[in-house]
Fold:
Amino acid sequence: MIKEVKVTRNYQVTIPLEIRKKLGIEIGDRVLIICEGEDIKIIPKKKSIKNLKGIIKKKLKITSENIDEIIKESVGEIGKALEDEYK
Structure:
């Protein structure tokens, strides 16, 4: 699905309703922004949290408090796995 959106003067974009519904994105949700070359990917953080246990090889207890640190430490593995999942 491809949708065109406008970047505002504050460099913000609105995620179209159809995409928000499909991905379950709600007001206040957090998303991951991944820049790969010339491409930008926006991934709902709650979805990535559910999938991290299978992506990260270490056995870690993933919580909302430590998720950012885990992502930073495992960005290579996570990026590859998310890329495969969202193709």
Q: What stands out?
A: DSSP finds four helices and two strands in the chain. Residues 17-85 form one domain.
